[in-house]
Amino acid sequence: MDPGNWATDIEAGSRYGYSLLFVVVLSSLAAMALQCLSMRLGIVTNQDLAQLSRQRYSPLVAKGQWLLAELSIIACDLAEVLGGALAFHLLFKCSLTVGVILTAFDTLIVLGLKGKNFRDLEAIILALIATIGVGYIIELAMVKPHWPSVVQGLIPSWETLSSREPMYLAIGILGATVMPHNLYLHSSIVQTRAVKRDPASIAQAIGYSRIDTIVSLVLALLINAAILMLAAAAFHATGHHEVTDIEHAYQLLAPIVGTGFAAVLFAVTLLASGQSSTFTGTVAGQVIMEGFLKLKIPCWQRRFITRALALIPALIGVQMLGNGAVGKLLVASQVVLSLQLPFALYPLIRMTNDRKLMGQFVNRVPTRMLAWTLFVLISVANLWLVVQTFGGAA
Predict the structure, then answer these.
(1) What mean pLDDT value characterizes the chain?
(2) Which residue intervals of 178-259 are DSSP H helices?
(3) DSSP string, 116-166
(4) Alpha carbon of 387 to those of 128, 162, 309, 336, 338: distances in Å?
(5) pTM of the entire structure?
(6) pLDDT one-digit tens code per residue, 24-44
(7) Topology given in CATH for the domain delimited by 3-393
(8) What tens digit of pLDDT does each residue of 191-216 get?
(9) Domain ranges of the chain
């Protein structure tokens, strides 16, 4: 859950009402399928996707994969910087530039977690996500969505995606939901649970982790759907179809809902979403660096490097384009995540289809078909967007 989800869902809801709700659902279902593949790979092989990629591909290819994975982490961290800066701006009335600089200090939070085990980190993230979830339950109760329209929006409509703008948002929603670096991360963190190496124990671990994965992503689905529904009910339904950034949403929420509490809650949950994503991005960065490069550095140093690389485009964007840059940069960062997806998906699918590597836990035919279908659909959607972008520019 990061501010990139907010930007894509708010713009989708304000521009198109509930009609892109099915994209949130389908993206979440795709995330469940792909994260289950990642989880299975980690448990069966006792290695993560980055380590296996380094072993199975040439050094040049593996370095390329590493660079693309790092790019996805920086894109995600850019969203966290912008979202955190905007939350500080909304809550404390500081400038966005000051807000961006304040986000650099979350490195101190990560340093403070030094020595904590993974269960402690899980508990912190769960508390942050619970804050987001409770906040949106309260806000949805305030805005009262039109439930027949919600149901209508759950029905896939390819006509809705026929033009560039809704397709661009749909790809952003996909990138925000199925983050490529999280595929590397998940294949690693499942190994924090001790599993005996006999087939029965491995099968049991896969079963439990599948439940864990699906429940977690259903929670994420509900929160993402709530963000879009809030935007649709509060903005689109009241004639505000051009709410394309989070600050505009915050400013409009209080007068539309009739209470300033909704707007403050909105900003608090935005800050919580950025922090929860910061922790997972830090761990993902360590997994990727150790797996591809065999390079291990302290957690706070990893956080500092990633945050420094994200601060540069954030500061440039805010200085050159002003507050209006935030919404555009947030959505663009999520589209970048989607563009990286095929490069993580291809090795993941190939490895989990490899009987020599996976043994009896190799993907069955229906799973193979589903995985390759998702790969083709995501790749084609990304290519379509690239062609549309450069074709339109030409």
Answers:
(1) 82
(2) 180-189, 199-234, 246-257
(3) --HHHHHHHHHHHHHHHHHHHHHHHHHH---HHHHHHHTS--GGGGSSHHH
(4) 39, 14, 28, 15, 15
(5) 0.85
(6) 999 999 999 999 999 999 999
(7) Amino acid/polyamine transporter I (1.20.1740)
(8) 877 678 888 899 999 999 999 899 88
(9) 3-393
